[in-house]
Amino acid sequence: MHRFILVRVRQLKAGQITPPLEKERKEMLKKKLVVLLSGALLAVLLLAFAGTASAAPPEPINSPPRTVSGVCDFPLLADLSGKEKTKELPGGRTLLTSPGLRVTLTNLEEPANQVTYVITGSFLTTELSDGNLFVVARGRNIIFGPDIGGFLTIGRFTFVGVEAAEGDIIALTPPTGEGRVIDLCARLA
After folding, report:
1. Residues 95 and 25 both lie in one domain
2. Cα–chain-centroid distance for residue 156?
3. Half-sphere exposure of 40 toward its Cβ, with a 13 Å CA cutoff?
4. pLDDT tens by residue, 115-125
5. Are residues 73 and 16 in the same domain?
6. N or C: which end of the chain has fewer CB within 10 A?
7. Which domain does 94 fall in, by range?
């Protein structure tokens, strides 16, 4: 084998064998690189568009104003407008988002006491072994329950809740976390 290599080197030096042209070699490498990069770019684009094509946009909320009792010492009227979306995630989790959602709350005993909030936050829920939900609330959210009252939370908070028949999540424990908490019952009293 060494003898073969030695013979090829001598032939190359003698001009009997022409070496591959350096320019042609570089052109071939450039073409291979272009094909490789084009394939990688195509794969990235397909993955990006596959994810967005299957994602449905948030749906407008189509619910009339409703009365909420048992949260404050007085009944409330809750009027929602905007959009919401529910997305099932792996691991038994559900993400509820509300882009552009607004709520107007009115004290029905004192109708002049009214507040409107933009509540564009999200709830990430995980079902617990007892059937309740562990909820991580991020952003601006309304959290309410008969034993805890009603709060506007701004930040990241957690609580344990249960899903009501209307799809609302009713808090069983007060929200804990980092951010700002506004007592809605005190604001509307």
Report:
1. no
2. 14
3. 6
4. 999 999 999 99
5. no
6. N
7. 59-188
